[in-house]
Amino acid sequence: MTRILYTLCGHDESRPFSPHAWKAVMALAHKGLDFTESPTPFTGIPGLEDGVSKTVPILRDGERVVADSFAIARYLEEVYPDRPSLFEGPGGEAMARFIEGWSQTQIHPAVTAISIKKIHDMLGEADRAYFRRTREALLGKTLEEMDTAAEAAIEAFPAKLQPLRHMLRFQPFMGGDGPLFADYILFGALQWLRVVTGSVPFLPDDPAADWFERMLDLHGGIGRSVTTA
Amino acid sequence: MTRILYTLCGHDESRPFSPHAWKAVMALAHKGLDFTESPTPFTGIPGLEDGVSKTVPILRDGERVVADSFAIARYLEEVYPDRPSLFEGPGGEAMARFIEGWSQTQIHPAVTAISIKKIHDMLGEADRAYFRRTREALLGKTLEEMDTAAEAAIEAFPAKLQPLRHMLRFQPFMGGDGPLFADYILFGALQWLRVVTGSVPFLPDDPAADWFERMLDLHGGIGRSVTTA
Question: Which residues form the GST N-terminal domain (chains A, B) (predicted)?
Fold first, then answer.
């Protein structure tokens, strides 16, 4: 059976960086499912799988095509119920939606502020023009203007992880004793920052950094294997 | 069987305001368990149940005494498994710990900034002295100095609920179709603010406000029944 995961890359295919695609990579690895990763530039996405989605990840699993990281996780949980669970019950699936909300509203804007110019710089030529046009229209500033806020965003970043640190006083993963899809949601955001900028700003002796190291070790070190900036 | 939940009150016993005690009230109601609430002033807590805990809630359930809101929820889930679940599986229990971390590190400091002087003012005489001494030592300012930040904290408050709003695009409760203990965690914090100050600052036409109204309606309107400031 053909199983392909379309992810996002710049001019270097070996450094896929989409946070949402990383969630899907980790979900497939969690389920122990083999797949071929197909890193795709921004401007290549509309041509994937008959234009099924404007964004990656997109999963082809035999005859089925599923877009959106959360939809992919739900699909995998439904179709491969005998593999390790991504949610450990309906409560875990529901609360993962809140954790997605936290990551996207609190962590993603911070990662964007830190890395937007660096993302641009790692893209191929066609993608650079697309990225500059769409992001500058969205945020009402030039990429260079946005980049002046990067240093302050780096300083402010460690405080964003306070909810995780509080939880880590009780358990090593959002999933409890082991990782679940909720962990992959936050991991995706921090891996995005790591791949693009080379590091994630943590506190000294930070339990959140220890969690991230545990995440990078998972599933044969699939996260750690990617070359960073 | 005697089931008593010790909660926290000021000079008016009909206005219990502890966020953690409200989590336990809602958890007991969720399980459909009858109980007698025993609102207690700060300075009365060390005398409860042989000084088992420095904080409320404390639950006496027949021969068993359990302190701490999360421990109470876990206890109820274990001892009353045939009643409606508070976690809907191990994933839901684990992720509720993250949601607790979010609420305590992001929402509780904001509620404290808005309401600390008003909390003081609703206490009895002995509690006022205790509260002023401990809080001023903890925060390094007088209550009156802290209160000057209240207006700015009110303005900043609605933005704190962005993760909830994102989630509400997909489902009506953190628990999914219905509330779970995770919802009671955030409810406790907002109910604390509501009981002490009379209202919660929301946006106009705020889906987060709609969620809070749904929470106030639950279990016979047990949250709404409390008189506010």
Answer: 8-84
Q: Does A100 contact B at CB distance below 8 Å?
A: yes
Average pLDDT rounded to a whole number, residues B165-184: 98
Sign of the CA dihedral running B53, B57, B62, B65: negative
Question: Is B85 part of any domain?
Answer: no
Identity (one letter) of the amino acid at B170? F
Which residues of B are less than 8 Å from A100 in CB distance?
166-167
Here the CATH number for the domain that contains residue A24 is 3.40.30.10
Task: Decide if A94 touches B, using CB distance below 8 A.
Answer: yes
Q: Say whether A123 sits in a helix, a strand or coil.
A: coil
Inter-chain touch B162–A97, beta carbons under 8 Å: no
SS3 content of chain B, % helix, strand, coil (to 5): 60, 10, 30
Q: Could you tell me if A173 lies within 8 Å of chain B, comparing CB atoms?
A: yes
Give the strands of the sheet with A36-40, arranged side by side: A36-40, A3-8, A58-61, A64-67
Domain count, chain A: 2
Range of the domain at B105: 90-219
Q: Do A95 and B182 lie within an 8 Å CB cutoff?
A: yes
A31 within domain boundaries? yes
**Is A96 found in the same domain as A57?**
no
Q: Does any domain span residue B226?
A: no
Task: Report ipTM (2 d.p.).
Answer: 0.96
Same domain, A50 and A120: no
Residue of A nearest to B173 (CA): A94
Tell me: the pLDDT tens digits for B104-141?
Answer: 999 999 999 999 999 999 999 999 999 999 999 998 99
Of B79, B114, B138, the residue that ends a domain is B79
| Closest CB from A100, A163, A180 relative to B106 | A163
B171/A101 touch (CB, cutoff 8 Å), yes or no: no
Of chain A, the percentage scoring pLDDT greater than 90 comes to: 97
Report pLDDT digits (tens) over A64-77: 999 999 999 999 99
Same structural domain, B181 and B132: yes
